[in-house]
# Entry
Amino acid sequence: MKGFIKDLIIAILIVVAVTMVIKPTIVKESSMEPTIYENNYLFVNKLAYIAKDHPDYGDIIVFKSDIDKEDGSGKKMLIKRVIAVENDVISISNGNVYRNGVLLDEDYTMDGYTTGELASYVVPEDEVFVMGDNRSVSLDSRSDEIGTVSEDAIVGKAFIRIYPFSEFGLL
# Structure
């Protein structure tokens, strides 16, 4: 009986430790297609940005938005790709995205172009500019409703797809 209790306590400690580091997430929107689809099950590393200053270009992050959930149970969590970090200058023109004057090669986008226009926007300190990969439907930093994302609002970095099993792997 002592062995069982010891094993149970160890198992509980492991579960608690893992949930402190990893947040399981189910994607509910199509804004990250073709990289991530609706109902994909992901793990998010909640400690990804503890040891370093800022997210990297291309990181797929989960963050707390200011948008209310439809059921009134709080704010929506969104998942988007980091396009620019603090002090970068972002421009969108003729379907292309430029960071610091350099055209981005974004082969991960759904349609290969970006809707909207943006002229020389400087990303504020401690914030990131994010966009979904499915630019025609994504509500992201191009919109006043989302804007740039404070690094304090970032929950973590999506790093692995668990389901569907046929697409299991690192992001």
